[in-house]
Specification:
mainly alpha; elongated; transmembrane helix; membrane; Dolichyl-diphosphooligosaccharide-protein glycosyltransferase subunit OST5; transmembrane; TMEM258/Ost5
Length: about 80
Amino acid sequence: MSLNEIWEAASASPYAPLVSKDNQFAVGFSLLFAAFILTGLFGLNRSLASIVSFGVPASLAFGFGAVFMICAVGVYV
């Protein structure tokens, strides 16, 4: 299959993101709010188990939430 054929086949199915542009603000705000709550819970109980149950999800929620909020307000990374 040549590169031209692959290009033409791909044009029939355009890329559609999982989270649309209209929903990025809501998803980003929800993730940042969840990160805020999980960070508070982690600060109240610092143990090895709370790192896994609160710390890791809080950091992931903050990371993805920040990227969604940056994209939602028009700053593209």
